[in-house]
Design brief:
about 270 residues; mainly alpha; Serine Threonine Protein Phosphatase 5, Tetratricopeptide repeat; about 0% strand
Length: about 270
C-alpha cells in the first residue's frame, strides 16, 4: 500500500496567487463550517517562546524565567500573572503577549488569547508563529474560515512552517475539504524531508508520525481505507514508544490511531 506522498501541482510560494486560490477553495465550502464529529484528536498547537531580547534589564529576565518555571510546573495562572506584570512594564513586548495568549488558549480562555495574539500582531505583523497561534484560537472557537486564512498567512511568511501546514490540513478536513487536506499533509512531509534530509532526530520522526496519523485520518474519512491503514501503521511506527508522560500528545494520538485502525479492521454493524 503506497502512500500518496507529494501529490498535486508543484507548490509556488506566491502570496497573491496562494491567497486567491485559498479564497476560491473556501468560497465553495464556506457554508460548511462544522466538524465531521469524527475528529477527536486535534494536533493544533503552538510553542512557548521565551527568547529574551538583548540588553534587557536583569529583573525582567528573572521574571520571565520565573514564568517559565511556573509553566513547567503547570501553574498557568501564576505564569499569566507574571507575564501580565511584564506587559504592564513593557507594553510593546511581543513575545510576552504571544506567550500569555498561549497560556490563555491552553486554559480555554479563547477570547483573551485572541486579544493577546491581535496585540502581538499589531506590534509585529510579520510573525508566522503568532498567525499560527491565532489560527488555532479561531479554529477552537469554530471560526474555521478565519483560521484557514491565518494559517495561509503564516505559510506565506514561512513556507517551511510544518506545524502551521499540519494545522491547516486539519482545518481543511474539518470542513470536509479532503483533497486540500491531503495536499497539505503531503507538503508537510515534503518540507520535513527537505529540512531534515537524512538527519532523523526524534522530534523529526515524531512530527512525521503526526503527519501520517492525520493524513491517514483524512483518507479514512474520505473512504480511501487502504491508504488510511497504511498511514496509520506508518504513524504508529514513527511515534515514540516511550513518551515523556501519560499526558504526552504523541501517546494520546497513538491511542486514538489504534481506535481508528480497529474501526477499519473490525467494523461494528448495527442491526
Amino acid at each position: 500500500m503506497n502512500s500518496r506522498m507529494f501529490q498535486g501541482q508543484p507548490h509556488k510560494i506566491k502570496s497573491s496567487s496562494r491567497s486567491t486560490s485559498l479564497a476560491a477553495k473556501v468560497s465553495l465550502h464556506g457554508s460548511r463550517q462544522r466538524s465531521s464529529g469524527k475528529q477527536l484528536v486535534l494536533d493544533r498547537s503552538g510553542a512557548i517562546d521565551f527568547s529574551i531580547p538583548l540588553n534587557l534589564p536583569e529583573q525582567p529576565a528573572m521574571i520571565r524565567q520565573q514564568a517559565f518555571s511556573e509553566i513547567q510546573q503547570g501553574n498557568h495562572e501564576a505564569a499569566i500573572d507574571l507575564l501580565s506584570l511584564l506587559i504592564e512594564r513593557n507594553p510593546t513586548s511581543v513575545s510576552d503577549y504571544n506567550n500569555r495568549g498561549l497560556l490563555y488558549f491552553q486554559n480555554g480562555q479563547f477570547t483573551r488569547a485572541l486579544a493577546d495574539y491581535n496585540k502581538a500582531l499589531e506590534l509585529n505583523p510579520r510573525l508566522a508563529k503568532v498567525y499560527n497561534n491565532r489560527a488555532n484560537c479561531h479554529a477552537s472557537m469554530g471560526q474555521l474560515v478565519e483560521a484557514l486564512f491565518d494559517y495561509e498567512t503564516a505559510l506565506d511568511l514561512n513556507p517551511a512552517n510544518i506545524r502551521a501546514r499540519i494545522n491547516q490540513g486539519i482545518t481543511f478536513r474539518e470542513l470536509e475539504m479532503y483533497e486540500q487536506a491531503i495536499e497539505n499533509f503531503d507538503l508537510a512531509l515534503q518540507f520535513s524531508h527537505m529540512i531534515s534530509g537524512a538527519d532523523l532526530t526524534e522530534s523529526t520522526t515524531t512530527m512525521r508520525g503526526h503527519i501520517y496519523a492525520h493524513r491517514g485520518r483524512t483518507s479514512h474519512l474520505s473512504g480511501d481505507w487502504n491508504y488510511a491503514i497504511a498511514d496509520y501503521h506508518r504513524a504508529l511506527t514513527a511515534l515514540p514508544s516511550t513518551p515523556a508522560s501519560s499526558l504526552d500528545a504523541s501517546q494520546r494520538l497513538q491511542t486514538q490511531i489504534k481506535t481508528w485502525l480497529n474501526d477499519l479492521l473490525h467494523p461494528s454493524f448495527e442491526a
